[in-house]
Queue: 4 jobs
Job 1
Amino acid sequence: MPAALLQHPFMSLRALTECQAQALVEAMLTFELALAEVQEARGAVPEGAGQRMRDVLASHPFDVEAIAAGVASGGNAAIPFVKQGRAALPEDLKRYWHQGATSQDVLDTALMLLLQPRLAAIDALLVRCRTAAIPLMRQHAATPMVGRTLMQQALPLAFGVKVAHWALGLEQARRRLAAVELPVQFGGAVGVHSGLDGPGWDDLGLACMDALAERLGLAVPVLPWHTDRQPIHALATALDAVSGAAEKLALDVALLTQTEIGEVAEPAGEGMGESSSMPHKRNPVRCALIRGAARQVHGHATVILNAAAQPLERGLGEWHAEWAPLIDAALLVEGALEQTAVLLEGLEVHPQAMARNLAATGGGIMAEPASKLLAPVLGQDAAKRISAEAAEAARESGRPYAEVLGAHPEVAGRLAPETLAQTTDPALYLGSSQRQVQRAIAWLEET
């Protein structure tokens, strides 16, 4: 697969660099060495054995290609890795290598270790997005724009409210992801630590599991979770929530950048958004990259959700199906957020285009408040009919809506022109927009 051209552009390049095959090997080694050390501290491994293993294996050149080839016969990367590690150790240490563990312990924990810095990077990017959104919200708390429902003009709202919803979506997803725990995995063949020998063997397994979590900086599970995939389910859905929030923002921005609308624009940059054949175009490329990444994350989440129920004490294909989608989802989310942060930090906002679009129907978007104004004077049915007739006449003639409404035979002379002008001013019909922006900012700044 030409991944460098078709897959990697949607991902974080920094994350890709840090998540190569060698990184997984190093994470598996980190697990095994920590396991030996916590067992040594509890008398299950001879004194000094953990350090001797570390001295031998820390600089050992594990053969990544051979490990990859071994997956075909063993079913996962941990099995050939463990074989290579044992072969490199002196005879007297071999029996203590991988003691009491199973391949799922190695691989699940290694994936948690690999994902830990990715979640930290994602959190930092989400904080960066929040930081960029708050000034936009403040600046445009009273900037009127068209509110659209079913893709049609509806009523005015403040642009700051739209930004607030983008920011709230991202922040809610951030807090959800921050609450997800990455637990250690250690249970042995069937999850009850039956492969351990040592003093107090019946308590040794759980004690080692807890100590291993502390040493590796991972969460302590209640029990080993070989076929209890709730931690993976929670992580996948939380990543998907982040991608959905970023995708919502990108979709809105892309729609608002359309030539005929032009209310916002992506940050300018050399070659950014260029077309291969049309020199005049400025495509919303960042939005496309965000949405492309998000769509892939949704697909990866589906794979993981379909693997949530796993048989008995070890998954038969379900566990195996999780690995690539989980890592890819994290890399895609990080990549999408790198684009989202830049988009928010440099978003070009065009209030004049927003005002132009509010007037695109001759101001007929203000038919609702006009109808409310006329109802006490002319009755509900007549008010609705007249406000609609005036909207259509304003659209066809290009005259201001207030002027057309005031000249309507049933309205002329009954309401002051100033009253009509004020009632049909979009800037004065923004409802709770400013209050909503204030409330959103207060919530965002809680952390």
Job 2
Amino acid sequence: MIGWWWILPTAVALIGLVLLIRGLRALFGGKPLSGGLGAVFGGAILWAACLAALFGMNIQTYARLTYERPVATLTLRQIGPQYYEINLVQPPREGQAAAAGALYPVHGDDWRIEAQVLKWKPWANVLGLDAQYRLDRLSGRYRAIEQELHGERSAYDLAAAEANARNGAVPFKVEAWDAIRRYRRYVDAADTLYGSAAYMPMADGARYEVWITQSGLVARPVNDVARNASAGGWTVAN
């Protein structure tokens, strides 16, 4: 992405600097009126351009640190008591057609998605590096501890499924962390490699979106069914 927030102010600042220098030369060359006006005008342009650059840099920093992108969309259909079918669709990678999605039968009250996330340091985010991820697992989750211990479980390996769909290629390989750690003494841009997860209540007809932020996964309800489930579905039924 072209950084117009600093290119344009820099160009204006150069113009102001040229005018300021010319004005100072004229001022000390025996032309106090024209030189003084030129120096004041050039200095004002230079000052305004610097302010605009700082303002743009502040906006750019905020935008980079809060940047996020979609990871998956989950649509749920109930097929039994505490039993749902999840249609999980991942956004197409660059140069690839949109995927049809995969169906996963899941037992429980909530669905849970996990990923391995490579988190960069904030200054690296500002320079353009985004958190990298690899979806790891989709599973069900019971709210009652007794059911969690003894109920029927569901868990699916999303990393293996994606690797099979892409002929062995995955968008982010954890093995890269070894190389990153090896060169941290020279450029310490990576913060940590860790597991991130998000979970939401399951309901018939609910639709959710999962996004990757610069710090990990976040899930959001998309339709009214999902929003109602999220608002009132966290209490355990007696």
Job 3
Amino acid sequence: MGDYKNLSSEDAVSKLKKLAEDIRVCMFCTDLTHTPFSTRPMSVQEVDESGNIWFLSGADSDKNFEIKQDENVQLLFAKNSSSEYLNVYGKAFIYKDKSTIEDKWSPVAKAWFSKGKDDPNVTVIRVQPEYVYYWDTKSGKMVSLLKIAVGAIIGKPLDDGIEGKLSV
């Protein structure tokens, strides 16, 4: 069902950027060696030209504490309305310097940090992807569900989705 299309280099970063910045909110998972692992919704600030995914976070959060213990994280993105999904596994790095905070700050962040950019609790997290996999259904969920149903009736898959590994 669907096609496989692995992407690398600029194509992979472009696809990662498009999906992550469009979906915007992911489930940010830490403490992956224990079950259940810790997870919470996080909003992407940006995906840079190297494929790093940037977030703002509180220095006193469980997430930051867990990253200091184990930098391995998993990000799970889903946009049901267009059947686009993204799975990112990588290493997380925490920044507290003013220039990085200034660079990654957005006005929306003030909702979480009442003192703004100068709030001593503000940190920036950079996730450097090591493994990325995507699912992208070209024609959207309703058309795809119809094609899957027709395919089941006639015994032949008709889905036009694409999935594959992104090597960033």
Job 4
Amino acid sequence: MKEDLLHFIWKYKKYPINGLISTMGEAVRVLATGTHNHLSGPDFFNAQVELNGQLWAGNVEIHIKSSDWYAHKHQEDANYDNVILHVVWEDDVSVFRKDGSEIATLSLQKYIPLSMLETYQQLFDSKNYKFINCEREFIGVDQFTKNNWLDRLFVERLEQKSIFVIHLLEHTKNDWEQVLFLMLLKTFGSKINGEIFVEIGKSINFSIIRKLYKKQLELSSLLFGQANLLKGIHEEDHYYKDLLREYTFLKHKFTLVSVFKSPEFFRLRPPNFPTIRLAQLSAIYAENNNLFHALIENETPNFSEILNVETADYWDTHFNFGKISKKSKKRLTDSFLNLLLINTIIPLKFTYQRYKGNVDYEALFKMMSIVKKEENSIIGNFEKLGAPIDNAKDSQTYLQLYNNYCKKDKCLDCAVGASLMNLKV
């Protein structure tokens, strides 16, 4: 027996509505189970329960054994003074409030059918699965149930990503243009350099970026210099020397302090080198003076036209300073543009629309639906189970499902797992 099962039994009233008796012999009638609390404090807030016809309003705490009340030291915590009912599986000790009054206890053990416990145990039996707990039953779950749940999961993923946006808004004092700049830096930095790229962005007063519109050399020198990438010696590299000269001037003019750590090159393919990514971002901002309006406020932006600008000619034959490479244009690839849409543009659109109080979910769904799906082992395994994953909306949704529910064994918080337990979510 686990507490998460008891939580669901209580929350969805999978016990007899009539005939409940407390361990003290009181008739128990549940009028409202309360609001499920996933943080510290009692498990359910604002419940309403009748005990022998007397209405009680307060909180409900749930444990496997009633003695867990003392094991968790709830008797010392004022947050539990308003508990009106202690719901347990096994009653092994009486529980009292600070004032000495006994808390009514409801033991569910004799009210729950064995079939429900067997279904729960089968769901979590590791012998039955290789990928996720419900992989054998997944394809058989009602498609309507799955579709509704997957739509909720996609919104949940956007909400999760919006937390970072809100954090940046606080840092920038609600400067949406600067937030976009920092979010682009994070995506351009990828997993390896995302955090340090954001720190580079934070080290620059965004008004400087605005002042350098149409000045790609100066913008590049600013980003490279703040990233500590202009500290080498390349006597024959005239472009490098131009960047260093410009950065020396900007650093003195704006009293700039570079970041404490340089971006990584190790384990990165040359197209993802920080030099290339910063050069590309410099080119984007050199060509766009109001990027937030163009990408976020505009209802029908041409993303490829706005973002796929040309870097300085120098980068046609370089991936790093002082090392000549085979000539190639360093444009953003379609796959990278998709990453920008998934990780920056759409989460920022969602957060901005919610900030304005008018989220166009249908438009966001449609936008993500035209983006190519991600390819990885998680998506591949869901496809083997028969899940139709056709675009980025689908792949993002299934990644949310796996990482936040399947991987954490939160099956009873998932509509698929709940349906298998005959629980309505």
